[in-house]
Description:
Order of helices and strands of chain A: EHHEEHEHHHEE
Oligomer: heterodimer
Strand order of the largest sheet of chain B: 3-4-5-6
Helix content of chain A: 40-55%
Largest sheet of chain B: 4 strands, antiparallel
Strand order of the largest sheet of chain A: 2-3-4
Structural class of chain B: alpha+beta
Strand content of chain B: 35-45%
Number of helices of chain B: 3
Distance between the termini of chain A: 49 Å
Distance between the termini of chain B: 17 Å
Radius of gyration of chain B: 14 Å
Number of helices of chain A: 6
Largest interface: A-B, 94 and 87 residues
Largest sheet of chain A: 3 strands, mixed
Helix content of chain B: 10-25%
Radius of gyration of chain A: 18 Å
Strand content of chain A: 15-25%
Structural class of chain A: alpha+beta
Amino acid sequence: MAGWAIAVHGGAGVDPNLPLDRQEEAKKLLARCLNLGIDALRSDHPAIDVVELVVRELESDPLFNSGRGSALTEDGTVEMEASIMDGPKRRCGAVSGLTTVKNPISLARLVMDKSPHSYLAFSGAEEFARQQGVEMVCNDYFITEENVGMLKLAKEANSILFDYRIPNAGLEKCSASVETPLQMNGLPISVYAPE
Amino acid sequence: TVGCVVVDSQGRCAAATSTGGLMNKRSGRIGDSPLIGAGTYACGLCGVSCTGEGEAIIRGTLAREVAAVMEYKGMGLQEAVSYVVEERLDEGKAGLIAVSSNGEVACGFNTTGMFRGCATEAGFMEVGIW
Lengths: 195, 130
């Protein structure tokens, strides 16, 4: 039997101007999450428990776009989604439209383990969370100053931004980074704004 | 978007992905992360987690595609990851991480960087952005 292996990601599409200190911050978080997973694998935890454990850690840290630190909707709120899948029997669970569940990935796990379904969304998912007794917080918990600024930028540019971590510098610098019209699927992003 | 893929010492694969979606998105918009087969997939062969332009990942059923080319074309993990990122995204921009049941780990992206880290029991460990 081959050994264990693990990989984590914090999003693709990184602003080329990301300052070094922000890059170091991201690398530290990735290394911390990797080590969390490695310790669990060395203690013989099954893969499905390890992926949930690591993603919970990433959701709780505001650095990346998930859980606390999630991107904001056009209304300035947070709507989160997550999914999990266990290879051996291809069992899976997914959730969307969560606004108060502290760790979406754990609710996806409960959908997989404790419900006859594969996917629950919006009010149904929130109701299931209450029944399962998972930790729930108000939507403000997920909103960060930085993302309020990013949403302002996106609205000014009338665009939809990906997992860009735009430097903390003043808005003038940030607005420069959204001047180049963003493409999505080969079309100007503004095509999608009405969508 | 964040994700984790793992193969344990019994050779069992798993994948998990979580996200807040796109900044300034319409309320009610669903991306690739919660869609099994698009943003997340795991089977007896591999575990995959994707990130990037959700609409392109959904259209390309990107995560399942890695498992499919391994299953039907007999590709190895890194070859499958590279093939899928190069051939299945059209003009879309995305990245993915993957592990295989024989303890390999791989990643691929066509964006300007992806926050990622990987490690194996043999002692390999890497954290990268660009």
